[in-house]
Amino acid sequence: MAEEVLVFGAWGSPFSRRVEMALKLKGIEYKYIEEDLTNKSPSLLKYNPVHKKIPVLVHNGKPVAESLVILEYIDETWKDHPILPKDPYERANARFWAKFIDEKCLSAIFKACWGEHYEHEKAEKEHEKAVKEVSELLQFLENELKEKRYFGGETVGLLDIAANIIGYWLGVFEEASGAELLTREKFPKLCNWANEFVCVTAIKENLPARDKLIAYLRNRFGAGNASK
Amino acid sequence: MAKNDVKVLGAWPSPYVMRPRIALNIKSVNYEFLEETFGSKSELLLQSNPVHKKIPVLIHGDKPICESMIIVEYIDEVWTSGPSILPSDPYDRAIQRFWAAYVDEKWFAAMRGLRSAQGEERKAFLDQVTEGLALLEEAFGKCSKGKAFFGGDRIGLLDIAFGSFLGWLKVTEKVNGVKLLDEAKTPGLVKWAERFCADAAVKSVMPETEKLLEFSKVLAAKMKGAPPPKN
């Protein structure tokens, strides 16, 4: 039976890019459908009625939603180039940090770049606080990386893919908003990792164009908290 | 395996703590339950979970594992001689994980909102909770395929994820004077809830509703008296 793999995504979304990165790593052919998130297609609403969000992977007509759930599904379905280790403790560890990134990092990064607008006197103090929070979170990841080339070890794994937000989008957010968060001085390992990460073919081919993303972010969220 | 090789750091009222305990029971693994004192965090907890400083933590040998559903999957992968908690088919696994994430991120978030909300806001949360239960009733039909649990004949991942909230669901019903699980609207879930609570792996760790109700009053009083949250 011919296999049909569809990916519903949005060009700028790190979440749908995760799915594409995993499929590319495993050499799986798929059809990509770009969604206009201001005008969601009937197909998207049919395949993800609960959240009505991208990404959705549809494999032979069966939909899977939520990027981390999709990554695990991809790894369990296509066994070449595994993205999770075999050892249960290491698997738990990768899942823990992937969840950490989604639950803590993204919102903290956004706040530091484009946080709520405060009156002038409060603004700088709140910005400092937000930057400090991001710093603490990044420190955890810096420590987790240790001397490894990738979070996954010698090859890119689930956590590297989940950390695409840190590996590429964070730098773009910084440039778009003027915030300085992932500095080489404080996070040398994470910076090295980010440079390696974006060079991996399956990753490189799936990064949205930097200029386009910066323009979109500035348009959507404004010039940013840290802009002078 | 020696009992002190497996420890669970937790507290009896926490639905999240129930989850690894149910999973260990399913696998017939002996463990030591280290109860945290309400209102303070032990050194062991702070060392074992420095990132979140939260319960539950599973300590296996000297390795800490955090986040309740991650712990459940770990337990399933380590103790393979016991009954499986996750199904073997990747698609079924994805569906279980999807709904477990939904229960935690959307449904219980609405339940928590209900606890402290007033007036219009309260009605909004209640609607969200009820809509969520309707979705879960439908999911139950699809996942169980006519069998007793979301996991089929035996308790599985989604049963554990959702079932662990049943104690708090009953407390919410009493406190708010509403019926959330209803024979008319969610007949499948009503029967499932009874079976879940009666299951051998669950019974010993599911707190009695009255005890939980008393605790919820203590919790509410503490929250009222507590200083406003920093962020």
UniProtKB/TrEMBL annotation, chain A:
Q: Does the keyword Zinc apply?
A: no
Q: Which UniProt keywords apply?
A: Transferase
Report the EC number(s), separated by commas if there are several: 2.5.1.18
GO terms under cellular component: cytoplasm
| Any Gene Ontology biological process | glutathione metabolic process
Annotated coiled-coil positions are none
| UniProt-recorded name of the protein | glutathione transferase
Automatic annotation (TrEMBL), chain B:
Q: What class of enzyme is it?
A: transferase
Question: Which transformation does this protein catalyse, written as a reaction?
Answer: RX + glutathione = an S-substituted glutathione + a halide anion + H(+)
Q: Where is the GST C-terminal domain?
A: 89-215
Q: Name one GO cellular component term.
A: cytosol
Q: Give the GO terms filed under biological process for this record.
A: glutathione metabolic process; toxin catabolic process
Q: Which domain of life is it from?
A: Eukaryota
Has UniProt tagged this entry with the keyword Amino-acid biosynthesis?
no
Output the Gene Ontology terms for molecular function: glutathione transferase activity
Stretches assigned to the GST N-terminal domain:
4-83
Supply the EC number(s): 2.5.1.18
State whether keyword Transferase applies.
Answer: yes
* InterPro entries xref list: Glutathione-S-Trfase_C-like, Glutathione-S-Trfase_C_sf, Glutathione_S-Trfase, Glutathione_S-Trfase_N, GST_C, GST_C_Tau, Omega/Tau-like, Thioredoxin-like_sf
Alphabetically list the UniProt keywords: Detoxification, Transferase
Q: Which family does it belong to?
A: Belongs to the GST superfamily. Tau family.
PANTHER family in alphabetical order: GLUTATHIONE S-TRANSFERASE U17, GLUTATHIONE S-TRANSFERASE, GST, SUPERFAMILY, GST DOMAIN CONTAINING
Would you tell me the protein name for this molecule?
glutathione transferase
Q: Name its species.
A: Castanea mollissima (Chinese chestnut)
